[in-house]
DNA sequence: AATGAATGAGTGTTCATTCAT
DNA sequence: TATGAATGAACACTCATTCAT
């Protein structure tokens, strides 16, 4: 059975991804300490033991979640955006529209943002300190756009890093709303852009 | 011992407040599930049993913390501010300066904001649903200022409640930074005001 | 696995019964407050956590034990005995022989009698007050036999309920001896019968 | 103040006795494990700490209680009774009347009997094994009376020790009723005597 | 001497992890 | 491979004992 072998591998991969995806949401909503393996596995619809076939421990599962949350495709788009020959204001608008749209459509995306920002915020034992390159790069890209905007006089002055942090902080805020509030009112792109835009 | 009796009561009240204050910070930083009574009591500098002299359970202690977080004096100031005969822009500025100052100076204030907003955000069993009057009123006051500002053409249009929610969301964001980040960069009042101010 | 499903249920039932049976003896010997879950589980030969898979709490386990102690099969035999067309003296003798034999052979029976009588004696919060029907009925049956014996002039006069209570009190007494004393001297049926029998 | 010194001693002795007496009842009703120092002291009407001025520990207090329960004056009367030149039946009747009367009138006496018999019954670490001389002697005296009765053909045959044990077992039984049941029906002397008396 | 708040060892209960099926 | 019952270390909570007043 040559086909069975690879099919098996495929099934394994699928299960692993299911666990990761569902756990991402669960951890984002309940936190690490607030998540019980028994509840989580019930929520996923598998036995408790199954999780331990794919992950060494609760800790390890959480780390793997942070890794995928940390390596999503947004960064690539960002780099593309930065290098585009358009105004910073336009770049910011495209970014904001994209981010808010994904936030609305994809709960998983909201969970990724939430976990990622918490990781940055808390910076403690629970989170591996090395794995924040992505977020840092995202901030760097954003601050590049902001610096461009400052030159173009369309954006407010001050530390571009601080402003990028503010911008993504607000995104984090509405990720939380997306995750926790059933009937939340999403912010508009214009609202989000006002964090850095001059009147 | 006529003095002893009332002095005793006083000491009891003091201990209760110490526990509440220290626990407020601890819970705000670690969450309910992430807080161990053993760690908490070590952090406060008392024995584990002492907590149970003043509070029925970990759950009960948390509820009491939410109660005090929900009843701080900010609201009174807000109502005064709303009724003052000055422009909405000025009101907003005074509010922002006050809030950001207290955030900087008083970690307990940051913890109150954090717990309060989380309570609003999560709105689940863990938090008593009745105790959110204060926050709601705070939002109402803010939205009144925003409505005034909209009439005065100094503030952006749209649902004033949604904008008030945005404004306080950003305050929550920087409460988290205050609580978790050792070397955080506080937002400026101008930054905060931009959430609702027209250019 | 069609067999596995029901076999699993079977095994669960078995474990529950093992815990109940062993706990019955342990509680009867050490009392509720004197029984530590850690000791009990060691005595049963299982982990502490296992008890909590089958029972909500120590309290709940104790209640379940009282329930089974309260619903043993003795009562059915008693009713049969009462309705038999023989002399009260003979009935009493058959009852006494049966009871003393079981006491000797079956430690669990002794524990049931002990817990049941204590429940009746203490009649406090620890014991659910509703669950004493069995004991009461047992007393009723016995007092019926005594009343028959009083008519037949073979038994002493006075309140038949009080005499039944005396009779079962002595049974309780020797249940305690059976439970606590390693080299006890069991009472004879004649001794037991003398509680109610005329010379 | 020579008087003050001894008066002080007197007061100390009084307090010690109050604690002993009240604790005797409390322990008899709730058992060793079921008795909390906090509840006990509340029941006595003193502070928790006061108990530790008079007794080293809960364990020690319990031992002291057993000592007084073990050394009451009943034994002296018994010895007198044994040596009296009257029939065994009469002796038994006098004993039964005395015992049942005291049981009725004096709850402390019931508690003594209860604790003493439990000590004999359980014979475990909790009870000092040496201190059972009194009870043993009481049994010896009783069995002497029974042996006299057997010679006089007024009492049933068999091991006199076993019968004495039966007799006092029933006394224990009604001590428990006295302690636990609010509206108990006390046994009559005749009922009690039937344990050993021939018809 | 008497108190009762404070303590921490000890007890009840939970939950991450293992393992027989 | 998947399961969930079993486990025991870890956590919430209690209570005998101490000690400042």
Oligomer: homotetramer
Structural class call of chain A reads mainly alpha
In one word, what is the shape of chain A?
A: elongated
Radius of gyration of chain A: 19 Å
Low-confidence stretches of chain A: 124-129
Largest sheet, strands/sense/barrel of chain A? none
Count interface residues per chain for the largest interface: A-B, 34 and 34 residues
Please give the alpha-carbon distance between the first and last residues of chain A: 67 Å
Strand content of chain A: under 5%
Describe this entry's structure for a reader.
Chain A is mainly α. Chain A has two domains: 5-67, Arc Repressor Mutant, subunit A, CATH 1.10.10.60; 70-193. The first copy, chain A, has ten helices and no strands. Chain A has helices spanning 2-30, 37-44, 48-54, 58-70, 74-83, 88-105, 107-122, 133-151, 160-180, 189-193. In chain A, helix 1 packs across helix 2. The longest helix of chain A is centred in the first third of the chain and has 29 residues, at 2-30. The termini of chain A are far apart. In chain A, 34% of the residues are buried. The model of chain A is unreliable at 124-129 (pLDDT under 50). Chains in contact: A-B, C-D. At the A-B interface, helix 9 of A face helix 9 of B. Chain B binds a DNA duplex (21 and 21 nucleotides) through residues 1, 4, 8, 11-12, 15, 36-38, 46-53, 57-58.
């Amino acid at each position: 059975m040559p086909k069975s072998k690879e099919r098996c591998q495929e099934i394994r991969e699928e299960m692993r991804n299911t666990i990761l995806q569902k756990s991402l949401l669960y951890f984002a909503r309940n936190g690490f300490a607030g998540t019980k393996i028994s509840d989580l596995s019930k929520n996923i619809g598998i036995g408790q033991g199954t999780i331990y076939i794919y992950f060494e421990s609760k800790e390890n599962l959480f780390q793997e979640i942070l890794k995928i949350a940390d390596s999503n495709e947004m960064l690539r788009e960002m780099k593309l955006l930065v290098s585009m020959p358009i105004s910073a204001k336009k770049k910011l608008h495209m970014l904001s529209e994209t981010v808010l749209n994904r936030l609305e459509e994809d709960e998983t995306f909201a969970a990724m943002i939430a976990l990622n920002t918490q990781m940055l915020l808390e910076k403690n034992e629970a989170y591996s300190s090395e794995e924040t390159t992505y977020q840092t790069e995202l901030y760097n890209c954003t601050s590049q756009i902001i610096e461009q905007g400052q030159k173009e006089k369309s954006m407010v002055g001050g530390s571009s890093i601080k402003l990028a942090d503010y911008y993504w902080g607000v995104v984090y805020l509405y990720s939380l709303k997306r995750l926790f509030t059933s009937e939340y009112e999403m912010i508009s792109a214009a609202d989000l852009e006002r964090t850095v835009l001059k009147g």
